[in-house]
Amino acid sequence: MMIIVSFFFGNPFSHRETLLFFEVWEPGWISTRSYLLVLCWAATIFLTLFMVCYKILKSFKEFDDILQQQCDPKQYLEVISYGVSYGKELRLKGYQKSVFQLMQQRYALALMVNAQLEESRRFLNDGWIGKKKNGIYKNTVFNLDLVEAYQQQDAERYNKLYDRAGRSFKKNRLFGVQKMFLDHQYKQAVDVLESYKVKSVYNNVTRLQLLGLCYDNLGDRKRAEECMRYVLEYGNTMPARAKAEKWLTHNREQLV
Question: Measured between alpha carbons, how far is residue 21 from residues 15, 24, 30, 171, 208 in Å?
Fold first, then answer.
């Protein structure tokens, strides 16, 4: 940063310069414009923190792609489990605490996507290390509450939770569609799901499984089959794949 500033203001330090036949001392910009030095330090700290955060998020993306793009929650759970176990052995300092919080959050989510809801609840209640009043912990618990209510087909509980959900949850339209499904609003759910574009393969598998169930309840078995076959092909180790396979086996005679 000092080099960049020196391009515009010259030598930062006091130095000798020859003026006609005399040598004179010229003060550098550090002494004449000391505020620039403060700005350099501030910019350096900001850029350093930015690079650290970028590297951390990039590493997490590589982990998350195991789930989001490869649709392999079993391997994802293994990787995140190792990360949490490793973090417990460290004396966490500074940003390491934030990294460990994110790792714990992903561990609870990894248990959820593997349909191990009781284990996820047990970890959040008894195994979580660190503060439980921060947003990461509260959002993870709330996510588990929604997943539990949907798995139990408890429309009343799900609706109450969804009504007080934050923007981050309502931004994911799949939560809203699950609410419609539990309320037997299958046609409305289909309209949303057909036009909803998702980026990850995992979310697309989830979307098409839900869409298939909606078509099934509407009596359109042909379209339901198309959705379930996509889930079967791309679902990898997701619980949704096993459910799709079971649905196709159960409806085999009607689909012929």
Answer: 16, 10, 27, 73, 84
